Amino acid sequence: MIYPIVIFGDEVLRKHCREIAPDYPEVKKLVEDMFLTLEEAEGVGLAAPQIGKDIRLFIVDCTPWAEEDPSCVGYKRAFINPEIYAYSDEKKVYNEGCLSFPGIHADVPRSLSIRMRYLDMDFVEHDEEFTGLKAWVIQHEYDHIEGVVFTDRVAPLRRQLLKSKLLNLAKGKYSCSYKTR
Description:
Layout: H1 27-41, E1 45-47, E2 57-61, E3 76-87, E4 91-96, E5 106-111, E6 113-119, E7 125-131, H2 132-145, H3 156-170
Antiparallel strand pairs: 1-2, 2-3, 3-6, 4-5, 6-7
């Protein structure tokens, strides 16, 4: 099933999401559907709030960046109940977009590396360090399950300049090639 993407203005994008237990109904099917939705929308990451679910789950597929970073070849993962517990002091500014913000891009500073604990689809615990492009997309998706959106992280002046575009999104004035709600 391909889910419609929730657009900025929906309150689910501002919720601090709840953890899920191993008995969460059909989590593997949900992850599979999220990957189908991500592929349809041509993105690299998707968090559960972006499909209307306030749970601590997100997926990433860094494959489109394989040319730029060979470690991204075939890199597809689901992250359940993640917790980023360490951020490097060294940061880099990335020009970000988001499926929930069609047509909007902005420069966002992110840590170059992070350490995170999470569960995989089988609810096996992992503790890993992520660097570069993987760290970037993971931080973006992690923000979603914390109720933070990428425009919250841009410089105040830039955020002010985006205000009318954000209002248009919230009013349903946008266009994109994927299904939205």
